[in-house]
Specification:
mainly alpha, 2 helices
């Protein structure tokens, strides 16, 4: 897992980069993905 430098993260967020849960995990912004609540 790659953890980008804080400057790179800040620049990506300034540019409006949106990440889904898996991308955020791979990017190093979050530690884990938890199960969501069922909408049924």
């Amino acid at each position: 897992m790659r953890s980008p430098p804080a400057e790179e993260i800040a620049e990506d967020m300034r540019r409006g980069r949106f990440l889904d849960a898996r991308e955020a995990l791979d990017y190093g912004l979050i530690d884990e993905i938890t199960a969501g609540k069922s909408t049924n």
